[in-house]
UniProtKB/TrEMBL annotation:
It comes from Amycolatopsis vastitatis. This is Alpha/beta hydrolase. InterPro entries: AB_hydrolase_1, AB_hydrolase_fold, AB_hydrolase_sf, Epox_hydrolase-like. PANTHER family: AB HYDROLASE-1 DOMAIN-CONTAINING PROTEIN, MONOACYLGLYCEROL LIPASE. Keywords: Hydrolase. One of its GO terms (molecular function) is hydrolase activity. Residues 15-242 form the AB hydrolase-1 domain. Pfam families: Abhydrolase_1.
Length: 265
């Protein structure tokens, strides 16, 4: 299926494909897309299947399906090889894609994500939440998630970020969000494959992230040889929005370094 997407920056610029998390949409990456496009990168930010303006299909969407959609979009846009970044569920989709298509990726950005499996309680909670939002919709679910998505500091000082995050979550199509939760509950363990990653990798995490704490990022950093770890102080689960200046600086520095290392053809 063809994903709704934004395609910013010069068409001949170094391609960067950024993958949003759950339950968000491509506007999650707007600060980074605009920042990178201004500096000459070509930045593609899609709405995943069942999110934003991309339609849902079926009641369960595996992360391999999301990854396949992204490869199809890259083929359609003639991206060839590209930098691939994702946050939270988006980071897990990134790990799935680089496992399935390592030849397509020149560098990786793994933000506020984790590679391992859910424990049985967390796995069942995904199924239960999927059933709940299918019946009730996204509003109460969004309000419950919000205090865990962004840090207390962000809620106190960045009402614009809080409003944006709330809007994305409340507006997420319930069918697509539920299908993703069911598929994500059945994802494989990506930890063993981390040692196979052979491209420059940036691991980013907010210091106050409750969902994927710093320890999860440190594990990925240890497993991916030569990776760079950046902890964004004061941020929760969405450092690219909560502390976009610091996040953009880390991302730009990494992209410059990875390009000079010969990671791109």
């Amino acid at each position: 299926m063809r994903l709704a997407h934004d395609d910013l920056g010069p068409k001949r610029g170094r391609p960067v494909l950024l993958v949003h998390g759950h339950p968000f949409d491509r506007s999650m990456w707007r600060p980074q897309a605009e920042h990178l496009a201004r500096t000459g990168y070509r930045v593609v930010t899609p709405d995943l299947r069942g999110y934003g303006e991309s339609p849902a299909r079926g009641t369960k969407t595996g992360l391999d399906v999301f990854a396949g959609d992204l490869v199809d979009l890259a083929d359609h846009l003639e991206l060839g090889r590209f930098v691939l970044g994702g946050l939270s569920m988006g980071g897990q989709i990134v790990m799935q894609l680089v496992a399935d298509h390592p030849e397509r990726v020149t560098a990786l950005v793994l933000a506020d994500t984790f590679a391992g499996l859910d424990n049985p309680h967390a796995k069942q909670a995904r199924y239960d939440t999927a059933d709940r939002i299918t019946e009730e919709g996204m509003e109460s679910y969004a309000e419950e998630l919000l205090p865990k998505m962004i840090s207390r500091q962000t809620r106190e000082t960045r009402p614009d970020v809080e409003a944006h995050v709330r809007k994305m979550m409340r507006n997420a199509p319930k069918e697509g969000a539920a299908a993703a939760l069911r598929g994500r509950a059945e994802r494989p363990d990506y930890t063993p494959g981390l040692s196979d990653i052979a491209v420059p990798t940036l691991v980013v995490v907010g210091s106050e992230d409750e969902f994927t704490p710093v320890a999860d990022a440190e594990l990925i950093h240890r497993k991916v040889r030569g990776s760079t770890l950046v902890v964004i102080e004061g941020s929760g689960h969405l450092p690219n929005l909560e502390c976009e200046t610091e996040f953009d600086e880390a991302l730009s520095t990494f992209l410059t370094t990875s390009k000079s290392s010969g990671a791109t053809p």
